[in-house]
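A note from the maintainers: we've had questions about how concatenated examples are separated. There is no special marker in the raw files; a new sequence line simply starts the next protein. For clarity in this README we add a label.
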Amino acid sequence: MALIGILSDSHGERVRTRAALKLLQSLGCDEMIHLGDVETFEVIDECVGYPVKLLFGNCDVVRRLHDYAELMEVEVVHPCYEFKLGGIGFGCLHGDDFHLYESLLDNDEIDVIFHGHSHETRDEMVKNTRCINPGALHRAKSYTVATFDSQSQTVAFHEVMD
């Protein structure tokens, strides 16, 4: 796997989530990570059939959505997803839990953090960790997702048109 698709903050926007997933697929993403605030079963329905790993956010009723995602065979990795790829350590979370965010920043095994929550794109260094936010699919100046190429370590932001 080289290209990771990152999306966040759907807030029930089913059609926009569908467009985002199709866009990420068309770009060649091998894995997609939804960083939370899905809010509805319909957004989870859109994830079916895609290689999506799902976290939940502060606007999600976690138990209800978790059970539904499992029923629909969408992989849930809530509240934090850590993995290594090509020698890079990744940590993924929604972004509203400051203590969890800080623990990832302080973890020497984590080189890159993917997070949502703020509805604003971000690619910056904090301490020694690269922090990337794909933007949002709801309540944003423009609706965006991101791709991260693990070989070149480049991030690109992509506008979603629905």
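[label: protein 2]
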Amino acid sequence: MRGSFVPDGILQQISQLARQCRRLTKNRVRPEQQLDNQLQRCNIRFSNYVSGQGNNVSLRKIIRAIIGGERDPVALGRPVHGRTKNRHGVQAVTGSLDGVINSTDVDW
């Protein structure tokens, strides 16, 4: 019976680095996905209108406002970038921020 292929030392190191890179990326993205899922459970669907959720400045401002106690969709929509409002419409953006947030809904 033939043994398994065992690559050279350098190929093993490259494989280990590639696995580590995938694991780090997965660990970085997972909290962003959990936060988005939490917001969607509260009927806040703003992530449908923005890309790059972890790096989106408008989304971070909205989350800070929600944490600060703001619940009015119009007030939450003020920090949204004008380009996003123009592309999707102010009504759509404001409607996506009209959620129901209770202390039992939020794990953060």
